[in-house]
Structures are given as structure tokens and as C-alpha cells.
Design a protein that fits this description.
The radius of gyration is 33 Å and the shape is globular. It contains twelve helices and four strands; from the N terminus they run βαβαββαααααααααα. The longest helix is centred in the last third of the chain and has 33 residues. α7 runs parallel beside α9 and α8 crosses α10. It is mainly alpha-helical. A four-stranded mixed sheet has the order 2-1-3-4, with helices on one face. It is found in: Mitochondrion outer membrane.
Length: about 300
């Protein structure tokens, strides 16, 4: 029997199962692949300071970082990408790299560096989810980490200060959103009729930006104008995270059910065709039995002959 899996992550709000991008990626992929994961929010615990989330616990194994957790789930035969071609797999890696390079820095700036958003939304939320005295420590530490990461990855010469980096961040992020919107088009998911790991990553990146009540965010306003991306997020929330309705079965089961349904339809169609052919044969005049009069016997022929 497989060991139970527990996922430690930040809790939910704003209509989302988690407000944390990395946690959302893992939660969505677990739903897509049919993995049964027990969610353990770290809110109001000392793990808000010490834990690295998301963290998946399975027996004696502890796995961190979304990419590592997804690989672990695939090894446990929970694979939402099993139908992807080699080309689609390469596209998945390319788009995930695009999200990390172009969109993540702008999201970190929006939630952790923008003063109005940080003071009115981000800091109060994380402070209220951390026990005393961590409520004075955790938000500031997360903000400092975000600022350092932005300057480390984007603060190249001649852009050294955050005010100089800001314009480039949002320009790249809007370009990334436009590319995602164009790639998705009118489809429900990025590849086929079932969500994959790319859908999990896009959902994790976009949903907090889409659902958070940010007092100031040009990037959120831009996203709200891309209706196919907002519908994409709403669709996943309704199908996979609505407590009032069961989640769709994993892709393997969907394929098996679809094949079984096609086979049943084919058998029924052939049975009906055979029955129709039998009816036609019975009703055909060429196949009606003929009544044959018996030949007169020799004695009767003699008796009927005149003497």
C-alpha cells in the first residue's frame, strides 16, 4: 500500500486554495493527476518562519520545490503529462522558463515591493497568519527576500535601483501575459482537452494576481483585459477546487472510459446492423418457402388412364 502524502503549504484566501504561487502549482497538479494529497496549511504555526513551502511528505521522504515535487508524483504514477508529445514537452519547459524569467519578478514586486500593496494587503495577510511574535518577522523577511531576488536577477547595469528596474519588470510581464493569451486562444487548456503541468504552472502564477484585492496594480488590470486567461483560472477553480462538486477523474481514467464508451457504441452499432440484415432476409420474397405439390404416383396415373 502506498504511503500517505501530506503537502505543507500556505493557506487559502481570495477564493483560492492557497495564496502562494508555488503551493498553487503543486495543488493544481495533484488535482490534475489524481494524486490524493492531504493538505496541511502552515498558517498560525511556527513553520511560517522555519518551513520551506511547499513541502511534500511521503513516509520518510520530504520533497521541496514545485519541479521536484511534480517529478516525485510522476514517479508515483501520477502523471498529467503522459499524453504529451516530445514537441509539447519541449514547449512546456520553454513556457515555464518564460514564466520564471518574465512574470515572477513582476509578481514579487507587485505583492512585496510595491508600498501600497504591501502595506494594505500582503503584510497584513501574512502577519495575521503567523503567531506572535512571528507576525512582526515573517512579512518583512519575505519582502526582503523578494527584493533581493529581483535585484539579483534584474538589476543589471545600468539598472541598479528598484525604481529603475520597475519599468522593465512590468513591460516583460505584460509581454509574457500576451504570449500566454495568444497561445491559449479559445481552448480550455494549453494542450488538448486535459490539463497538464503547464496548466498547473500558469494557474499558480496567474490566480493570485487575478483574485487578490490589490489597491494598486497595472499588471492586474492588464490581466483582467485578457479574458481567456481569467476564464482559464475560473474554469480550473470551478472544476477542481469547488467543494460542492466532485473533481473530474484523472486523465488515465478519462481515456479508459472514453475507449470503453467507443467500444460499446461500436458493438451496439454492429448488433443493430446484424439484426436489420436478418429482418431484411426474412421479409424478402426470394427467401419465402415454396409449396411443392407432390408428383402423382404411378398407380394413380394408371387409374386415370382410359381403358
Amino acid at each position: 500500500m502506498a504511503a500517505a502524502m501530506e503537502l505543507r503549504c500556505w493557506g487559502g484566501d481570495w477564493g483560492l486554495p492557497s495564496v502562494h504561487t508555488e503551493s498553487l502549482i503543486v495543488l493544481a497538479y495533484a488535482k490534475f493527476s489524481g494524486a490524493k494529497v492531504t493538505v496541511s496549511p502552515i498558517d498560525w504555526t511556527w513553520k511560517t518562519l522555519t518551513a520551506t513551502v511547499p513541502e511534500l511528505l511521503c513516509g520518510d521522504v520530504a520533497v521541496q520545490q514545485p519541479s521536484q515535487i511534480l517529478n516525485f508524483l510522476r514517479k508515483q504514477r501520477f502523471n498529467a503529462d503522459y499524453e504529451l508529445s516530445a514537441r509539447q514537452g519541449a514547449d512546456t519547459m520553454a513556457y515555464i522558463a518564460l514564466l520564471e524569467e518574465k512574470l515572477r519578478p513582476a509578481l514579487m514586486h507587485t505583492f512585496w515591493v510595491d508600498a501600497e500593496n504591501y502595506v494594505n494587503l500582503t503584510r497584513p495577510w501574512f502577519a495575521s497568519r503567523s503567531p506572535f511574535p512571528l507576525n512582526f518577522i515573517v512579512p518583512g523577511r519575505l519582502a526582503s527576500t523578494a527584493l533581493s531576488r529581483i535585484l539579483l536577477t534584474k538589476g543589471e547595469a545600468p539598472l541598479h535601483r528598484i525604481s529603475e528596474v520597475e519599468g522593465k519588470l512590468y513591460s516583460d510581464a505584460k509581454e509574457c501575459l500576451n504570449l500566454l493569451s495568444y497561445r491559449l486562444g479559445t481552448a480550455s487548456y494549453f494542450f488538448g482537452n486535459s490539463p497538464t503541468s503547464l496548466d498547473a504552472f500558469v494557474f499558480g502564477f496567474l490566480s493570485p494576481l487575478y483574485k487578490a484585492g490589490l489597491p494598486s496594480s497595472p499588471l492586474q488590470s492588464h490581466l483582467q483585459q485578457l479574458h481567456n486567461l481569467t476564464s482559464f483560472c475560473d474554469n480550473i477553480l470551478a472544476l477542481y477546487f469547488n467543494a460542492d462538486r466532485p473533481c473530474p477523474p484523472p486523465p488515465v481514467q478519462e481515456t479508459m472510459d472514453a475507449n470503453l464508451q467507443k467500444l460499446t457504441q461500436l458493438v451496439n452499432k454492429e448488433s443493430n446492423l446484424i439484426e436489420k440484415m436478418d429482418d431484411n432476409l426474412r421479409s424478402s420474397p426470394q427467401h419465402k418457402p415454396h409449396r411443392v405439390d407432390p408428383k402423382p404416383s404411378l398407380a394413380s396415373e394408371k387409374s386415370s388412364t382410359p381403358a
